[in-house]
Specification:
The complex is a heterodimer. Chain A is of the alpha/beta class. In chain A, 32% of the residues lie in helices and 28% in strands. In chain A, helix 2 packs parallel to helix 4 and helix 3 packs antiparallel against helix 4. The longest helix of chain A is centred in the C-terminal third of the chain and has 17 residues. The termini of chain A are far apart. In chain A, 40% of the residues are buried. Chain B has one domain: MetI-like fold (Orthogonal Bundle), CATH 1.10.3720.10. Helix content of chain B is 78%, strand content 0%. The chains are: A alpha/beta, B mainly alpha.
């Protein structure tokens, strides 16, 4: 099981700062969620770790090896794209086995492996359908299966549920977490949906304007938000308006029927 | 109720508008081009089908035409894909320069371009080729190359780059990703590009004339052979060869359109280590393709500038020809703009379900060899004893018509229909929606189409030679100069025209 270390990563697009001095550590078998509002740099960070973009400064380590200059095909990762990027000209099975094929490992064993993976995501019956003929939920499951058939145990998920109906998304996310845990994978998942993050994550990295605001377990950051932004972003129940009812050397706070 | 009435009353002007557009196309553009197949009898007024026959001479010319077009297209695709890929995918300045350089041969009249390329390879230049088959091939590769690269880069740009990225994360090297994902996804673009370049090559006259030996000045390819028949007064043979050419082009078009939906590029075996090592040659590969482009296309295209010499005796003729060329191109483009945009709306919006039919008919005009088209139109309008200059303008209007309709129709198809609906909901009448929303959004493609049509008209030799007896457009004049071995004057006229076209293209591009 791999671990990932991001050290001092910054990314500039021209004069625009997308990320500044990010330091994140992800342990073996951990399910980490990068959480934040749109434009906070979470997808940029994910694509830098995956090797699609080069950081302006900083280093990325996978399993302790410096992979900063390695192209994505040499990082041995699985990546689930926001709109899945399923190859429209290949059927379900050919999409699933694409990874082994382009690596030159189109063997009996890899075909069996791909079939098992399709069984696991309940798509074996649709193995000769084309992506356009599948429902949104099936497409999502196929994207996960394709990413995992490479045999990688480091999985990247870029807003994997945002293209689905809220209800189907909510169903799939617990299923997805269970599968990732069963297969003992390390996962990095990007989302702007706090509910989703709370449910699937072992560890949440809250981001804002290209920086990290807080890192911790869902419970930790919910109970002990580091600042007003994190408290706000995690939900309304966290944040209660109070009125100061007495100004003395100490203050008296009045909240609903309670007085402190 | 109010809404219904409004829609109903809006229907009539719309029907009238499209009827005019369709009538214009059928009567003035399409029917005259097919006239040759119906009334080819030159000596009688009775309706008759012309006899069609194929002599050995015609067969040889057709064989030459097809083998040259085929080899040229294959070479163009092999060396065009890397350049098209750079233009479509790179975000650097290199893209801008390449884009501009690739367009350069397009603004050159094909006769001038053929002249220049023939000078470059021939005895006056590096002396590698003598006039004949291989020289014609070199010329055809040069003038079809921009068509391939343009169409291909547009097609590659349409394939979402995320697919390539997905392929890379699954372990494919950039080359493997391109071959297994991007290439199959733009195969129809590849087919269309190949068809366009193939039919342009099949149809070209002016450039070919520059590359055939003087002894057999005409008889080399099918279009030049047709012109030779016509000049010798053998109208029956000219008509027969023209009809064969038209029929073959139409069949080709139908086959390609059918194939572009059906055929797939199979995912062949992948050789990861080999493809990876080829990929590590990336830089060298790009340099090789660029070198091909510069050495085979760009440099030969402008070699004639070395030969420019000025002789006052011909200056009047040159200015006169430039005047005629530009007036005809201008009139043809303006008329086509008015009616062509209407046809583009009809095709792009698939009005009354007529879109596919008229798209096919427009394509038919586009792939038709211009000599055959000119011959047919000349015969048709001579029925009405029409003024020769006017006939010339009609001919140019016909063959440049598709160059406006096609890009505009494509951009109308891509237009988000919601924008128009939003404007309607906000209270705009259909005409107002067109003027304030649709027109501004499709303006770039209208301009691009107009430039293309204008350049095609300026550059055409074969169609002009097929109809005109007295009037000389600039490419015809250049052909005449070369024929009389007045290379300096030919180069001077070409350079002058090139300068004017260059400035016009530059001004339009800045807009």
């Amino acid at each position: 099981m791999p671990n990932v270390k991001v050290v001092g990563v910054s990314k500039f697009f021209g004069n625009i700062r997308a990320l500044e001095n990010i330091n994140v550590e992800i342990n073996d078998g951990e399910y980490v969620v990068l959480l934040g509002p749109s434009g906070c740099g979470k997808t940029t960070l994910l694509k830098i770790i995956a090797g699609m973009w080069e950081p302006t400064a900083g280093k990325v380590y996978i399993n302790g090896n410096d992979v900063t200059d390695l192209p994505p095909e040499d990082r041995n990762i699985g990546f689930v794209f926001q709109n899945y990027a399923l190859f429209p000209h290949l059927n379900v099975f050919d999409n699933t086995i694409y990874g082994p094929v382009v690596r030159g490992k189109d063997s009996e064993e890899s075909r069996k492996n791909a079939k098992e993976m399709l069984n696991l995501v309940r798509l074996a019956a649709r193995h000769d359908a084309f992506p356009a003929e599948l429902s949104g939920g099936m497409q999502q499951r196929l994207a996960v299966a394709r990413a995992l058939t490479t045999g990688s145990s480091l999985l990247f998920l870029d807003e994997p549920l945002s293209a689905l109906d809220a209800k189907i998304g909510a169903e799939l996310r617990s299923e997805m977490r269970k599968m990732i845990k069963d297969l003992k994978l390390t996962a990095i998942h990007v989302t702007h949906n706090q509910e989703e993050a709370m449910e699937v994550a072992d560890k949440i990295v809250v981001m804002r304007r290209g920086g990290v605001e807080q890192v911790g377990s869902p419970k930790e950051i919910y109970r002990n938000p580091a600042n007003l932004f994190v408290a706000h972003f995690l939900g309304d129940a966290n944040f209660i308006k109070v009125a100061a009812s007495d100004y003395g050397t100490c203050c008296k706070l009045k909240m609903l029927n309670w007085e402190m | 109720m109010g809404g219904e009435r409004k829609l109903a009353s809006g229907k009539l002007p719309e029907m009238a508008f499209y009827s005019i557009v369709i009538l214009f196309f059928l009567l003035l553009v399409f029917a005259p081009t097919l006239y040759i197949a119906l009334r080819g009898c030159p000596d009688s007024n009775a309706v008759c089908f012309p006899p069609i026959y194929l002599s050995k001479e015609m067969g040889d010319a057709l064989f030459n035409s097809f083998s040259i077009a085929f080899i040229a297209v294959v070479l163009d695709i092999i060396f065009g894909i890397p350049i098209a890929w750079v233009i479509a995918r790179y975000k650097t300045n290199l893209k801008v320069y390449l884009n501009f350089l690739v367009d350069m041969p397009l603004i050159m009249p094909t006769a001038a371009l053929g002249f220049s390329v023939a000078l470059f390879w021939g005895g006056e230049g590096i002396g590698l080729l003598s006039k004949g088959f291989w020289m014609i091939l070199a010329v055809h590769v040069a003038f079809t190359y921009p068509y391939i690269v343009r169409t291909l880069s547009a097609a590659i740009e349409e394939v979402d780059i995320t697919y390539e990225m997905a392929s890379r994360t699954l372990g494919a090297s950039p080359l493997t990703a391109f071959r297994t994902v991007t290439l199959p996804l733009f195969k129809s673009g590849l087919l269309i590009a190949a068809l366009l370049a193939f039919t342009r090559s099949l149809s070209e006259t002016g450039a070919t004339m520059m590359a055939v030996g003087t002894g057999q000045f005409f008889a080399a390819t099918a279009p030049t052979q047709t012109l030779l028949y016509k000049n010798n007064g053998d109208i029956a043979s000219a008509v027969s060869l023209s009809i064969i050419l038209i029929a073959i082009s139409t069949i080709l078009l139908a086959v390609v359109r059918y194939l572009s939906n059906k055929f797939g590029i199979p995912m062949l075996k992948v050789y990861p280590s080999l493809e990876k090592s080829i990929n590590s040659l990336k830089l060298e590969k790009n340099i090789f393709a660029s070198a091909f482009f510069i050495a085979i296309i760009l440099f030969p295209s402008f070699y004639l500038l070395k030969f420019v010499s000025y002789s006052p005796g011909e200056f009047g003729d040159i200015m006169n020809a430039i005047g005629i060329s530009f007036s005809i191109a201008f009139v043809a483009t303006v008329v086509n703009l008015v009616f062509g945009v209407g046809m583009a709306l009809l095709i792009g919006r698939n009005r009354f379900g007529l879109g596919p039919l008229f798209e096919f008919l427009t394509d038919m005009v586009m792939v038709m060899p211009t000599v055959a088209l000119g011959l047919s139109l000349g015969m048709f309008w001579n029925l009405f004893k029409m003024n020769e200059l006017l006939v010339l303008a009609m001919v140019h209007m016909s063959f440049s018509y598709p160059y406006i309709v096609k890009p505009v129709a494509a951009s109308i198809r891509d237009l988000d229909k919601n924008l128009e609906d939003a404007a309607r909901v906000l209270g705009a009448t259909p005409f107002k929606v067109f003027r304030t929303i649709t027109l501004p959004l499709i303006m770039p493609s209208i301009l691009a189409g107009a430039v293309m049509a204008f350049m095609r008209s300026l550059s055409e030799t074969g169609a002009t030679l097929a109809v005109s007896k007295t009037f000389k457009t600039i490419p015809v004049l250049i052909v005449g100069f070369v024929n009389a071995s007045k290379y300096g004057d030919a180069a001077f006229a070409s350079a002058l025209l090139l300068g004017v076209s260059f400035i016009a293209a530059f001004l339009l591009r800045r807009k």
